[in-house]
CYTH domain-containing protein
Amino acid sequence: MILEIERKFLVSGDAWRSQVSGARRIRQAYLANGGTTSVRVRVIDGSSAKLTVKGAARADGPALSRPEFEYAIPVADALAMMEMRNGRIVEKTRYLVPAGAGRTWEVDVFTGALEGLVLAEIELERPDEEVALPDWLGREVTGDPRYGNMALALEA
Amino acid sequence: MILEIERKFLVSGDAWRSQVSGARRIRQAYLANGGTTSVRVRVIDGSSAKLTVKGAARADGPALSRPEFEYAIPVADALAMMEMRNGRIVEKTRYLVPAGAGRTWEVDVFTGALEGLVLAEIELERPDEEVALPDWLGREVTGDPRYGNMALALEA
């Protein structure tokens, strides 16, 4: 188990693209949700897969904290489990942008049903960690239920 | 992924006890359920643990078939995930009783909130496989939603 601590922002413009250090294609879906618990299956670059259980999120200073349990699983299992999903398969390209101090902005450019949405997340070690906010960030949406990964998978 | 094919019965009396070839203590809970999909965490003999995703059950001849994905996980993860459960922790001792032809009756003697309930399950390779039914079996409850593992965890 790890405790995931993160902040999330809308992204405005393309200035981040010149700083990209890596990218991967992500397809993910939610298998089930038990109120505050979610179970997600994710395929990365079509070649690896993970099963992730997340517990209840809670506001923790400016960030959101959430227990997270993640296991590598066979891609074939992930693809079969996606057929058992709730809601849609979410597709995005995740671009990695160095954030300084060893941290990374993950800029998610959604495709398919969520085309046009671009979100940036940063994972922190401590909820109160200072973060330099680049100009290309838009409004902060940490804790906004509309931008939660599960909401994006379930909303019409 | 495996396809789990099983039949389930109530158990009457103790005649099976003289044939027990093994036993293990099981504690399990459900993390989430997405309609037909369930996610279960199980600790066996306090020393190993599994995370199991099951898809929709469907009647298949006299048996019930269901896609199942199971992964070994650290016991510490399982115990932490149990805190995120829906419903209760189900506790039982599972006794193994040889069924012939390489198969095994799993006789589950529940304790705690379900004290008094005893169920026997057999896993089959084919839905139409012939099964010799020992005298100590009571009524068949294959497919009876009241005796599903998730129902037993969720019902008051």
